[in-house]
Amino acid sequence: MKLLKLLTVALSVLFFSVSAHAGDKVKVGFIYVGPIGDHGWTYRHDIGRLDVEKAFGDKVETIYIENVPEGPDAERVMRSMAQDGVDIIFATSFGFMNQMVKVSKDFPDVKFEHATGYMQGPNLATYGLRLYQARHVQGVIAGMMTKTNKICYVGAFPIPEVIREINTYYLGAKSVNPDVDIDIVWVNTWYDPGREGQAAEVLIADGCDMVAQHTDSPAPLQTAQKLGKFGFGQASNQIRFAPKAQLTATIDDWGPYYVSKVQAVIDGTWKTGDYFGGMIDDDAVGMAPFTNMPDDVAAFAGKIKDGIKNGKYFAFTGPIKDNTGKLQLKDGEIASDKHLNTMMYYVEGIDAKVPGQ
Fold it and tell me: Is residue 90 a contact partner of residue 30, using CB atoms and an 8 Å limit?
């Protein structure tokens, strides 16, 4: 009888503990490499965080830390979040990868999610967007619109995602304009409006009249407008910053993914894996309206966009050689996700060398 009472008490304590935990808010942490007011990459991730709050209300608590440098500071922030009881942590920059791999091993009960990375673990998932799809359409527009046959690109850091988008931008332009050339400037920062704007000025002074960027402020686009050229918004619709210069923009939509992964934590069904969303199926990659261009350019670009969306057009279809002459994709071969996520070569025709290669 005494044993039965003890067992009953133990089960009651266990039930209370589980019920109490089930009633707790799920804590969701976001680590941003830039400010939420960059109007680009981090801004769109924070829109996704707000989507989580809208979807779950008082069932969740979200926190974020912005302007976290890639390196030791990122590890410190991740550890602090994990120690403070955060249930799932989203780190939103490629340069956070090594730190997240390390910290995830020390906190096996916490769920970790790394944007644009490729290293996974039992409690570490990766996610990204096929932003190269929209960038290819931008390239088509640039190739048709350029008057100087020189387009350009303001790059942040030479990582696979950025290299991939430079390539697809150039391939899009080359597909409609065999005479097009591309210049690239690396600014080695994700967010520095002054440096980004100066890079665009240098490129325009050298003859570029179509400015693309893989940095997070509207500064290159604003510079293009100031100097009477055209460009493309980065990560969000930036037309209010340069209404006479923006031709279109890539729009990142992280919200559905964040909501789905937080729901999985609530349901107890979260699992590791890799997500690569795009224009097809989930509309995770969008584009701003086509503006400041002739109707025929908009119509042709629209056909390319529709071809991508319905799965009939793939930007990275062989034969594709790199700019050393090595065959990277054979005739008719479509690049695999692994190929895309490890791309560290320039395609044939780009007269430059990938930094560090």
Answer: yes
Choose among 238, 193, 236, 190: nearest CA to 214: 190
Backbone angles phi, psi at 182, to 5 degrees: -130, 140
CA distance 27 to 114: 17
| Structural domains of the chain, ranges and CATH numbers in brackets | 22-128+254-277 (3.40.50.2300), 131-251+284-341 (3.40.50.2300)
Letter for the amino acid at 29? Answer: G
pLDDT score for 23: 54
Query: What's the pLDDT tens digit per position in 266-320?
Result: 999 999 999 999 999 789 999 999 999 999 999 999 999 999 999 999 999 999 9
State the DSSP string of 252-302.
Answer: E--HHHHHHHHHHHHHT-----EEEE-SSSS--EEEPPP-SS-HHHHHHHH
Rg (CA), the chain: 23
C-beta separation of 168 from 130 below 8 A: no
Instruction: Spell out, as residue ranges, where the chain has pLDDT lower than 70.
Output: 1-23
Distance, in Å, from the CA atom of 239 to the CA atom of 233, rounded to the nearest integer, reads 7
What are the residues whose beta carbons fall under 8 Å from the beta carbon of 58, sequence distance 6 or more? 25
Residue type at 101 in one-letter notation: V
Whole-model pTM? 0.92
Query: Which residue's structure tokens are 């686009």?
Result: 221
C-alpha dihedral over 338, 98, 129, 34, to 10 degrees? -150
- Distance, in Å, from the CA atom of 251 to the CA atom of 284, rounded to the nearest integer, reads 8
Classify the phi-psi angles of 347: left when phi > 0, otherwise alpha if psi is within -120 to 50, otherwise beta.
beta
**Largest Cα span, the chain:** 92
Give 37-105 as a DSSP string: TSSSHHHHHHHHHHHHHHHHGGGEEEEEE-SPPTTHHHHHHHHHHHHTT-SEEEE-SGGGHHHHHHHHH
List Cβ neighbours of 304 (8 Å cut-off, separation of 6 or more).
136, 137, 140, 172, 313
